[in-house]
């Protein structure tokens, strides 16, 4: 009798089980990888300019600096055109190096420069190395000029006032002296700092017989100074691209630190005065 041939059982083998697990694992990886790559691609496309900047900044530093300035030039020009009823000026210090004052006439070849602030002193003893040269050159160009002191919170305020008074000889027609406060105190309270600021302002006002201008950053002024110093002529710095006009209490608005002016190498601070030239001249020391 011939025995029937029995078909071999088709039990799933170990190899097939492993393959199924591998397929599931691969599917899981792709389900994560594809959305992640898509998000990365979208991010890279949206931020391609910034990525390009990062890519070349170590190898083409000069190109990056030119591109940055071009971006700021566009914004600055648009802002000044929107406020063509205002007048504009710059402020300089030793950081601008040697300035070709014969060429310093306009901002971006379009907006006349009507006034210039110059850093004179810093702290108790320091003097800007280009102050005297810049101060004299501006007078020769018949521009309105003003001098400012950079206040160092951890140094004696009376000595700082004397440093400024000894260095700066204001004349009739010059803008009032300026106190620049930007730093936080390290070894005294903010209340103590404000006492020092008031002392500097009073000593300088007594000497020149004109009330000084107060310069500070927008947030610094709002957080610490507004309550007690709001009655001063204010020069406020705020470089935020989303700010399109000065606040009502800003007499001067430093709206950019990336300005382009022929005759000055590198960027320079740009300022807007909230008034016309007659208003600015009325602010100057009486003739």
From TrEMBL:
One of its GO terms (molecular function) is lysozyme activity. The keyword Membrane applies. The keyword Transmembrane helix applies. Gene3D superfamilies: Glycosidases. Keywords: Glycosidase, Hydrolase, Membrane, Transmembrane, Transmembrane helix. PROSITE patterns: GLYCOSYL_HYDROL_F25_2 (PS51904). The chain crosses the membrane at residues 27-45. GO terms for biological process: carbohydrate catabolic process; cell wall macromolecule catabolic process; peptidoglycan catabolic process. InterPro entries: GH, Glyco_hydro_25, Glyco_hydro_fam25_subgr. PANTHER family: LYSOZYME. Belongs to the glycosyl hydrolase 25 family. This is Glycoside hydrolase family 25 protein. It comes from Sphingobacterium humi.
């Amino acid at each position: 009798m011939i025995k029937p041939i029995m078909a071999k059982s088709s039990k799933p083998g170990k190899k097939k089980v492993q393959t199924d697990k591998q397929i599931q694992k691969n599917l899981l990886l792709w389900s994560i990888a594809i959305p992640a790559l898509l998000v990365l691609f979208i991010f890279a496309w949206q931020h391609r300019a910034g990525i390009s900047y990062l890519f070349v900044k170590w190898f083409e530093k000069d190109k990056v600096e030119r591109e940055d300035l071009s971006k700021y030039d566009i914004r600055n020009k648009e802002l000044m055109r929107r406020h063509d009823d205002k007048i504009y000026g710059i402020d300089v210090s030793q950081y601008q190096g040697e300035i070709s004052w014969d060429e310093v006439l306009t901002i971006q070849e379009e907006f006349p420069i009507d006034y210039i602030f110059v850093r004179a002193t810093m702290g108790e003893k320091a003097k800007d190395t280009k102050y005297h040269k810049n101060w004299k050159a501006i007078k020769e160009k018949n521009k309105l000029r003003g001098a400012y002191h950079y206040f160092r919170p951890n140094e004696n305020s009376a000595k700082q006032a004397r440093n400024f008074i000894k260095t700066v000889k204001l004349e009739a027609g010059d803008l009032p002296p300026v106190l620049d406060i930007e730093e936080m105190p390290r070894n005294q309270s903010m209340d103590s700092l404000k006492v020092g600021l008031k002392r500097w302002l009073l000593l300088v006002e007594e000497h020149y017989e004109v009330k000084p201008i107060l310069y500070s950053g927008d947030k610094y002024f709002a957080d610490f100074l507004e309550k007690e110093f709001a009655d001063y002529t204010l020069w406020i710095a705020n470089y935020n691209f989303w700010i399109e006009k000065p606040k009502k209490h800003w007499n001067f608005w430093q709206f950019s630190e990336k300005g382009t002016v022929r005759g000055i190498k590198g960027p320079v601070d740009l300022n807007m005065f909230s008034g016309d030239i007659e208003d600015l001249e009325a602010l100057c020391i009486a003739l």
